[in-house]
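User: Predict the full complex structure for these chains.
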Amino acid sequence: MRAAVRHVVMCAFVLVMIYPLIWMVVSSVKPGNLVLSEPGLTPSEVTFQNYRDGWNALDEPFSLFFLNSLLVSVGSIVGNLVSCSLAAYALARLEFRGRKLYFAITLVSVMLPLHVLVVPQYIFFSQLDMVNTYFPLLLPKFLATDAFFTFLMVQFIRTIPRELDAAAWVDGAGPFRIYWSIVLPLMKPALVTAAIFTFIWTWNDFFTPLIYLTSTEMFTVPVALNSMMSSETANGVGALFAMSLLSLLPVLVFFVTAQKYLIRGISTTGLK
Amino acid sequence: MNPVNRRRFLQLVGMGALGTAGVTALASCGGGSGGTAIRYAWWGDSNRQQKYTAALDAFVAQNPGIEVRPEFADYDAFQERITVQTAGRDVPDVFWIPSPQVMSYHEAGLYRRLDDIPSLDLSAFSPTLIDSYRIDGELNTLPRSVLTAAVRYNQTFLDEAGAQLPADGAWTWDGLSEFLIEYTRTASGGRKGIHYNAQADLCFEAWLRQHGQDLWTADGRMGFEVDALAGWFEWWEVLRRAGAATNLSEQEGAQPEWPVVGDKVLMTFGNSNHIADEAPMFPDYEFGLRPMPVLADAAAGHRFGYLSRLAVYQGIDDDKLEAAGRLVHFNINDPAILGIVGLSVGAPANPQMLQAAYAVANEDEKKMLAVVEQEMAEEQKPRYEAPPGSGTWRTIMTRGVEEVALERSSVADAAARVVADIERELGRAS
Amino acid sequence: MTQETLVRPVAQSPPVPARRRRPPSFRRQGGAAHVFLLPFLLGLVFVTAVPLLASLYLSFTDYDLLHDPELIGLENFQRMVSDERFWASVGVTLRYVLVSVPLQLAFALLLAVVLDKGMRGLALYRSAFYLPSLLGSSVAVAILWRQLFGHEGLVNGVLGWFGVEGESWLQNPDTALSTLVVLNVWTFGSPMIIFLAGLRQIPEELYEAARVDGAGKVRQFWSVTVPLLTPIVFFNLVLQTIGAFQAFTQAHIISGGQGGPLDSTLFYTLYLYQQGFQSFNMGYASAMAWVLLVVIGIVTAAHFLLSKYWVFYGDER
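Assistant: Here is the predicted structure of the three-chain assembly.
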């Protein structure tokens, strides 16, 4: 009985939270010109034309933009997980000169607004002749420049009792062994979290791909979406909704899969 | 395999990720013909993306040995990207120029002169026209199209109300204002006369020129005074206070969007070219287009058109110049392009192209062509582009409109503030 | 605080032999550390530090992106003092930080605890609550928000049932910022996930130990969950505060880049963006960025100083 009440409360709350999305789903099956002029949850006419229009809105099919985004997102996840966890382990656990300084610089780089870094970074990548390639998007991820994740992982490593790696020291393990076989398995929730966020943020990132990817066949989903609705006339809202919803699917699938791995970290590693 | 494809192939393989994705992506990159590669940058919505890509393909087919690399984005995004590219001196070879940036780019030396490129034929333009395109005496941009300020009205609503627009002789600002108030009084369904669009810059410019003033002057300063702006604000306020214009809440902001107001008002102010894109959103209605109302004692030569320009980058390689010239030629002189891209960017500036355009225009586009032709046939005193430092004048204007329409300040105070703010921004840039 | 005293004994009695050996020598770890840090250091020099220093240099110049920058000393900083819109943006940003960060974090923590365990179908609920955050900064959000808070939006529709006739919440300078706070709270998914991951990281043994000591559910929450989650709370607090100071996208999308009506949603970074990319005052924008950096730096340093009093690390000795 109590469980039933809880479910009712939760469901009601969920409905409130995702009402805007429900509205969006309904709107996406309305004829394009009625999306804004006839709001409300009961469409007078149901059509999938918006999906067809949106899919073929640009001269390349939308599947290409999905693949491009997938390439960038998966590359970014690999880059972030490897480079940030390495850096985070060193910053959290090893003792060396400059540790505090590095940690401070990590934080400082999160504090400066992106917009003033764009131009110098662009000049850098353009001199390396990397414009209109995916390198400007991926290279920084492999170099642990997403300080958010380094910091996140440092915080997680610091919640791990130090006795665990101290015990390994006693057994004669070096820093690499400890990183690989103790710290990494224990910070699985942090890695999954970082993977989820990297995926979502890269998938949704607009400004960087806009600047670096100039030809249509290189576009990622957000750049393609942005070109669908004219800011001058607001045409194409229906197709925009349809494609926005489709572009939610990969992230949703990824999230649903990944969150299962947010399982109890320590309890499953046989800490006895 | 052309260089682009090869580079892309290396990226995909080099990353070792998504093997199948790579193959599919590769398969979908159409192959260019190799040879001289010209970067071409333009803006718009997805519709325009498709049409211009098709046009560029047609150009490439016509011109073996030239490859075009399209760079497309939405209007705002286009400006962000080209700004960064400019800072990195990595500018497309041929590019459209957004209106606020015409003079900034000119002063930064981004434009190459266009009167010495053999492959670019300018014979369709009279010397007078050519002179009107010059910036500081230099022919370094050319107009793709002409836009004029225009009034769009909903013929269906007019018919329903049994009303008729003021005749040409009575097509004055006062006459229009009275008509709109009268229309709103009797209109059914809570319809109003007009949206509140004191923000429409070409329409505001028409108002200024009729008052003997200008938006900008030849020497890069503001061309209007507080009184003229206050008079403009007041024209809108009369309508708003009478309930004949939608308020900012009803139209969701100082810059009303067509889908929001399209079926709420009889009339909207805007650019002549938008009717072609916007009319189809309300397929049940028939729309008409007219030039702006005119002051009884309007200053001579007040008529004008805004030239939407394109340019060739100053730093273009010499061996690409011939190809770039051909591409510009294709854009401004070749009737074939009209058949592919249509008229969503406005009426062609080239007089011969304008006549050819009637052949490809739909009903709404014909109305647009007629209005532009009518406006451009009149005597016009020169018009000057927005100077460097004017990049935020629209933002400043928006705040002024909000102050007035939200009743936070008097018309006179708001107008004085706007003028002072724009002047300060201009002073900073010089 | 009484929890503090409760915490330590429970948390510090893990079922592992206490540390016996001093960590190995400074030099040996220094070498290893730099191997771990190699990608980080490369990125630091090439991707982060150079642009960072470039922007610092630009903050002392007049730079319009089109011509070469020209040194002008402290002029950009002096200009801020008398720039009305600058101060308007400071006010908007401070209000936003103070209101939206605590609200969003409280919301995220509450739901993370509720969605952690003890109920069927949790995975489903979690995904549902996370959905809004997935939408991110899509252009579609602008239209969604108008559908909710606009003149003919849902909120006014509901108010209409009670006979209240509402204006557009987005176009009223007194309420526009609140709708952005709501937007931020609505997308509480990221901190929620971090909290969830943090909850998952707490060793089950500690709960067992607490139960052995006779602690009930509430007591377990306060003496095990809360203290062990403090590093994560701290992380979320620091990062969300920084994020709120830099808030840009929401206002950029919803106000169409203007920060209106009447500058009521003109976030600091939005004004910075307008200066840099619309007025072409990249020198001024860079100066603004560095002022923001100093302010955020001070706030973050304060967070770190204060953290000694409430954050508990499992690796503390």
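Chain B has a mean pLDDT of 87.
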